[in-house]
Structures are given as C-alpha cells and as structure tokens.
Amino acid sequence: MKKLLIVFLLFSGSCLFYGCNGHNTSSESSTSDSTSTTATDTLGTRMDTMTNTTGTAMVDAKAKGFAADAATGGMLEVELGNLAQQKATSQAVKNFGRMMVDDHTKAKDNLKTIATQKNIDLPPAITDDQRKDIDKLSKKTGADFDKAYVDMMVDDHKKDIAAFKKAQGDVSDNDIKNFITNTLPTLQKHLDAIQAIKAKM
Where is the region Disordered (predicted)? Predict the structure, then answer.
C-alpha cells in the first residue's frame, strides 16, 4: 500500500511539473509573437514614413524654381494673348494672341498636374513686374499696340526657350524634364510665328 502511495505521489508531481512547464512555454510563445508583431508594425510605420518623406523630397529646388517661373510665364502669355485679341488691329496679331491663350493654357494645365503629383506649390498669379508690363501695354492702341506686343512676344519667347533649355540640363526630375521636352517645340513654333509677323510689319 505504501508503495502504491509513493508511486501515485511521484506520478502527480510529474504531471504538475510538466503541466506548469508547458504553460510557461505557451506564454513565452505568445509574448514572442506579440513582440514580433509590434516590431513588424513599427518597422512598417517607419518604412511608410521614409517612403512619404522620399516622395515629398524627390523634387529638387531647381525643378521647383523652374516650375514656378514657367507657371507665371504661362499666365502672362495668356493674359497678353487675351489683350491682343481685344486691342490688336492686325488679324495676324489677333490670331497669334488666340494661339497664345490656347497653347499656354494647355501647358499650364499639364504643369499643374505634375505639380500636384510632386507637391510643388505653384504661384497663384503673375508677378508684380509682369502686371506692370501688361498695364503698360494695355495703354497702347492701334499700330503702336501691335508693334509693342509683337516685340514683347519675340523677346519673351527667346528668353523662354533659353530658360527651358537650361532647365533641361539642370533639373533631375523626369516628369519636369518631360514637360520641358514636350513644351519646347511649341515655344519654338510661337517664336517662328511671331518673327514672321514682325518681318511683315
């Protein structure tokens, strides 16, 4: 009887020992899984933050500066084009003004789409100096207006083409580069057209 009691006690002790040990293993596994999940979540958050930071910072200062100048330059051409359609005496000048409005509005919309994707803040309006140029031109009438507008368009488009070509080598963003490449032929078309008009005046 004593032998049976001893065996029973030994057996019960073993069960208690292994039962407790098994419970600890499960707890440790749960803790390990929780720690792993937390680490993964933290890493994911850090990766998301890095991605967002990279996405925002991928446009360099030169690209942003070019985009701002191109935006105000395009708005200027549109306002001057509208003015030419109202005040020019030459039908060729009026037609050129309409082309300015159409082409530069399209270019402005394309640039705005890129700027939105790249988190670039474009100026909402032309500069004060550009406004002065418009006001000065608007005071002219007749042939004087035609000549002043044509001269301004020749100078502006020469400067624009030079600025676009320079930016083509300076900026690193591919979307901005594509905008430059796609817009340059239009600017050259404008310069050719206005020079042809000037030659006949």
Answer: 24-47
